[in-house]
Design goal:
Shape: globular
CATH architecture: Roll
GO molecular function: flavin reductase (NADH) activity; FMN binding; riboflavin reductase (NADPH) activity
Helix content: under 10%
CATH topology: Pnp Oxidase, Chain A
Number of domains: 1
Strand content: 35-45%
Structural class: mainly beta
Number of strands: 12
Number of helices: 2
Keywords: Oxidoreductase
Distance between the termini: 42 Å
Organism: Corynebacterium comes
Strand order of the largest sheet: 3-2-6-9-10-5-4
Protein name: p-hydroxyphenylacetate 3-hydroxylase, reductase component
EC number: 1.5.1.36
Length: 166
């Protein structure tokens, strides 16, 4: 039997992939002089030379049309205690930046103040990936907050870091 012989539903895949914990990011850009941002958990390093990261955005996202090749982009890796921001940037139809402290880097892109890490750069490529679009980002600047622990995402929920008890 091959994988082609099997039928996996979206719910089955979501349940299985959801067991793998990941970090939570806020991805931002500037479009028409305005900040645009969304919550993204599908984020990873891609290349050290040249410095690149990759992220995946749902094709139904209202922010996706602003994330075009050549656009400036910021990625803020949320820190523990910033779960409210993850939820805020996932809600449609609101001012996602309301009450949010941001820092500006690169070409004026907003980064979340207090994030565990941040990346600023430019979208280099966009590829179709099923119901998502895969974006590669050339990183021009990045930084970390040494005392921060990352916010974690697993099975549809965010969790603050839990130290190993052993």
């Amino acid at each position: 039997m091959t994988c082609a012989d099997l039928t996996v539903t979206g719910d089955q895949l979501r349940a299985a992939v959801g067991t793998f914990p990941s970090g939570v990011t806020i991805v931002t850009t500037r479009s028409g002089g305005e900040d645009v941002g969304l919550t993204v958990s599908a984020f990873s390093s891609l290349s050290l030379e040249p410095a690149m990261v990759v992220l995946s955005v749902d094709n139904g996202s209202t922010s996706l049309p602003h994330l075009t090749v050549g656009a400036p982009v910021g990625v803020s890796v949320l820190a523990e205690g910033q779960g409210g921001l993850a939820r805020q940037f996932a809600i449609r139809g609101i001012d996602r930046f309301a009450g949010v402290d941001v820092l500006r880097r690169g070409r004026g892109v907003a980064l979340i103040d207090g994030a565990a890490a941040w990346f600023a750069g430019e979208i280099v490529n966009a590829f179709p990936g099923g119901d998502h679009t895969i974006l590669t980002v050339s990183v021009a600047e990045c930084g970390t907050r040494d005392d921060a622990r990352p916010l974690l995402y697993q099975r549809g929920r965010t969790y603050d870091w839990v130290a190993d008890a052993s």
